[in-house]
Amino acid sequence: MNSEKALILIIDCLKESIDEGDDQERKNAINEANADTRLFGGNGLLDSMGVVILLTDLEDKLDDDYGITISLADDSVMSKTRSPFRTVKSLAKYISKTVSD
Predict the structure, then answer these.
(1) Predicted confidence (pLDDT) per residue in 48-71, tens digit
(2) Residue 66: CB partners within 8 Å, gap ≥ 6?
(3) Contacts with 46 (C-beta within 8 Å, 6 or more apart), sequence order
(4) Distance CA 42, CA 7 (A)
(5) What's the CATH number where 36 sits?
(6) Alpha carbon distance 42, 65 (integer Å)
(7) For the residues 1-12, what does the mean pLDDT come to?
(8) CA angle, 50 as apex, 67 and 92 as ends, to 5°?
(9) For 39-49, how does the pLDDT look when each residue is reduced to its tens digit (9 = 90+)?
């Protein structure tokens, strides 16, 4: 899977995660998400639980739609100085690399 497909997958998962209880500002931010959208950290769309949920959703979607079974949150990723979960683009690159390994 290339980074572009992974990017689309991430944005689709984000949009599917919109909940009726979300405020309009959050809904707008998710609907306008792009490669540079910050996922985690300062001004990110997601808190730590939100990242876990997104990763689980992505793993399920990769398995269901592409037959790819991977774990996106392993110990080596969690110990990196620069998290691949910072932006949509960095997560897409991480998924693309993980799938091709």
Answers:
(1) 899 889 999 999 999 999 999 999
(2) 1
(3) 39, 40, 54
(4) 21
(5) 1.10.1200
(6) 32
(7) 95
(8) 45
(9) 988 889 998 89
DSSP state of 38: B
Domain count, the chain: 1
Residue type, 96: S
Conformation bin of residue 86: beta by default, left when phi > 0, alpha when psi is -120 to 50: alpha
Are the CB atoms for 88 and 13 separated by under 8 Å? no
Helix (H) or strand (E) holding 82: none
Domain span at residue 81 reads 3-100
The pTM for the full model equals 0.88
Instruction: Note whether 87 and 39 are within 8 A (CB).
Output: yes
How open is the CA angle 83-76-12, to the nearest 5 degrees? 50
Is the pLDDT at 75 greater than 70? The verdict is no
Instruction: Please report, rounded to a whole number, the percentage of residues in the chain having pLDDT higher than 70.
Output: 92
